[in-house]
Amino acid sequence: MQNKFSKPIIILSAPRSGSTLLFDTLSKAPDLWTIGDESHAVIEHIPELSTVQRGFVSNALAAEDATEATKTKLLTRFQQLLRDRDGDTQAQHSQQPVRFLEKTPKNSLRVEFLKQLFPDALFIYLVRDPKENINSIIEAWLSGRFLTYPNLPGFNGRWSLLLTPNWQSLKDKPLPNIAANQWAISNQAIVDGLKDIADERKLIINYRQLVDTPEAVLKQICQFADLSFDHQLSEKCRDGLPLSQYTLRAPNPDKWVPKAHVIAPELEAYTSLVAEINQWLEKDGKLKLSTDISAEQIENARQHAAAVNTINTPAPVSNPQPGTTSRNALCPCGSGKRFKHCHGAM
User: Fold this and answer.
1) What's the total number of domains in the chain?
2) Would the pLDDT of 111 be above 90?
């Protein structure tokens, strides 16, 4: 008999928005159960939900993909991996209702599917300033640590992070364009997917406020989701949140500035999306996103890039580069498997 997932909490965000930080922190709540990490492999190793088996169309899943058989299979897999903050796995064998916390950036493209899988789910929408977020996506691509499809057919070989619909149009595009596309498509899909969800079942959080005032934000989340905010969770927040396991460089809200000249043109296409997100943030009394980039910042970045010239070049390459994932290393997708047995075999 299936474990009953009662009002599961789904974190939705674009890649590199701080969702791992939020997941790792919120998972310390005494009421919550997780599968111990992100759900990339759990979902995509079901053939009907596999991006590879579906012909690399994208990571998106629609409502019609949530067949009864598929839902049963996925819920069973989630149940078999359940653990609490102390590593206790007793919920795997219990029929008692559990509060489940789920997260992977790919879920930004799967809101309709998740609404069918968990009809009573609560959604936490984590947003990050687009300048910071797009910069972080660029850095993730350049690092080689977030490779998801090393041999993507029809591309220049190597793809990082989530696979967006119509990714074929990005072949040979500059990396900032690809990064902005991933940011925009993820956020637009979330905004659209949550429009018919009642206000009491969705909460928007600004990453900057999560980092600057973690205890206040976590208390708000716990109140929203009817979770306990106990001493252990308070201790986690007290001295500022630790770096997540996927952090590339020490946090700094101005890390994007050296790339201002390539980020600014990309943002021009997404003013309406930013306005829509900001309307929601303002309604909830949250800090709004900023797209402000000064002419001086753009010119300084352009002059710096003229000497370095490493940013505005096509991102994907056909041949392996130094620093990329070795065959025996853990797969960067977060599955816990060795690269050669996971995305390295695709």
Assistant:
1) 1
2) yes
